[in-house]
């Protein structure tokens, strides 16, 4: 007969002591059922399997943490990938993988002509010896536009250089990822387009303070009447050297190797801006070179540490003065205005880069040392003038002058 509880429920009949003992409980234990509850949740796992699952979960969480902190998978997970069989023939038989350094180890300075590049290259020579990075230069100095095969070959040569490296050459922007390579960090410096043009115009004719005859070596085939051509005549009479596409010079260094990058227009301008935003760590302004060097030291200390103190050193100043173009004259206001009109897109790009550079300076607390900002030129002609006459590539500067300086 079942016993009734006050609430109307039934109380189970007491179990015999033998049955209680068989169930794992006994007098004074009262928790036989509670002791079995944890194991009942995982009825098919042994204690060893349970520990293995917990260790695997801990390993996964730790790996995920490292992935997020370092911006990528940790090395031991990459090694695990190969151990699990996801390897290729090149993984096992090819050259050893490049060492991944904790700072940008692939830097390209595709320097724009007559924008202070010789001064910066001289600094890089000193810095490479001081900090031990690999400064890679090129024997080709006057070819900025490359065929597809030339692009592939150059990218291959750059990518296989010993890291950390800094490659420098006068060359239009190269898209490494298009050919399956790792995109390097790009840096560059530009200047006021008219100032750059005038510097190049007189440098090709009369050289600089390194020697009175060095311009004869650079342009031996230049006729005397061309060498002494008045700059105003060149501009006002629309000579090829003073017209488009020759004046469309800075933008292609940032637009790239596409044929449309050589045509003055909105397409090349917008593509150049896009590449500046996506692929260039810094594009500085030559008129504010000291601030450019400060930011380079901040962003790339393994390359540019102490660069400003070296730049301000009197010995370096003395060498830098040798690269100043001689016999420069200023064109007439009328000629200058025509240059502004023909270089409309160049100025749009220049002021865009300048604005971005000043935003970056303010972000890092740098104040501009310029006394007065230069006014933007007025453009009266809606599109640049063009010439049908083909123009050869500009003769760029080379690094031979550096060897002469080191011999002094």
TrEMBL record:
GO CC, alphabetical: Golgi membrane
GO molecular function term, any single one: sulfotransferase activity
Subcellular location per the Swiss-Prot or TrEMBL entry: Golgi apparatus membrane
Gene3D superfamilies for the chain: P-loop containing nucleotide triphosphate hydrolases
Transmembrane segments: 50-69
Compositional bias per record (Acidic residues), positions renumbered to this chain: 386-401
Membrane topology classification: Single-pass type II membrane protein
Region annotation (Disordered) ranges: 1-31, 368-408
Keywords: Glycoprotein, Golgi apparatus, Membrane, Signal-anchor, Transferase, Transmembrane, Transmembrane helix
UniProt key word Nucleotide-binding: no
Domain of life per record: Eukaryota
Location, primary (coarse class): Golgi
Pfam family, one: Sulfotransfer_2
Biased composition (Gly residues): 1-10
Entry similarity comment: Belongs to the sulfotransferase 3 family.
Protein name: Uronyl 2-sulfotransferase
Native species: Cyanoderma ruficeps (rufous-capped babbler)
């Amino acid at each position: 007969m079942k016993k009734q509880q006050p609430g109307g429920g039934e109380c189970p009949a007491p179990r015999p002591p033998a049955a209680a003992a068989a169930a794992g409980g006994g007098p004074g234990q009262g928790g036989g059922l509670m002791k079995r509850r944890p194991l009942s949740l995982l009825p098919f796992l042994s204690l060893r399997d349970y520990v293995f699952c917990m260790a695997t979960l801990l390993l996964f969480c730790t790996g995920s943490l490292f992935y997020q902190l370092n911006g990528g998978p940790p090395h031991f997970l990459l090694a695990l990938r190969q151990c699990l069989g996801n390897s290729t023939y090149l993984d096992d038989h090819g050259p050893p993988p490049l060492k991944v350094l904790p700072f940008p180890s692939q830097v390209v300075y595709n320097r724009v002509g007559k924008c202070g590049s010789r001064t910066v290259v001289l600094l890089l020579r000193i810095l490479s010896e001081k900090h031990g990075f690999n400064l890679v230069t090129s024997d080709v100095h006057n070819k900025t536009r490359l065929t597809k095969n030339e692009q592939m070959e150059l990218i291959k040569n750059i990518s296989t250089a010993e890291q950390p490296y800094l490659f420098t050459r006068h060359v239009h922007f190269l898209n490494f990822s298009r050919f399956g390579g790792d995109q390097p960090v790009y840096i560059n410096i530009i200047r006021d387009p008219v100032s750059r043009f005038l510097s190049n115009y007189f440098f090709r004719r009369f050289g600089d303070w390194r020697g009175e005859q060095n311009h004869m070596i650079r342009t031996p085939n230049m006729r005397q009447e061309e060498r002494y051509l008045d700059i105003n005549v060149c501009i006002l009479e629309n000579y090829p050297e003073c017209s488009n596409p020759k004046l469309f010079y800075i933008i292609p260094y940032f637009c790239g190797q596409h044929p449309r990058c050589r045509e003055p227009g909105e397409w090349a301008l917008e593509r150049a801006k896009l590449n500046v935003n996506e692929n260039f760590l810094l594009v500085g302004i030559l008129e504010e070179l000291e601030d450019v060097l400060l930011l380079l030291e901040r962003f790339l200390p393994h390359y540019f540490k102490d660069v400003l103190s070296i730049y301000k050193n009197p010995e370096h100043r003395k060498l830098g003065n040798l690269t100043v173009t001689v016999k420069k004259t200023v064109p007439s206001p009328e000629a200058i205005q025509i240059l502004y009109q023909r270089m409309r897109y160049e100025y749009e790009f220049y002021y865009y880069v300048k604005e971005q550079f000043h935003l970056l300076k303010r972000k890092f607390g740098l104040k501009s040392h310029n006394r007065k900002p230069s006014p933007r030129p007025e453009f009266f002609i809606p599109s640049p003038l063009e010439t049908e006459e083909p123009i050869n590539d500009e003769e760029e500067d080379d690094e031979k002058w550096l060897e002469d300086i080191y011999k002094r």
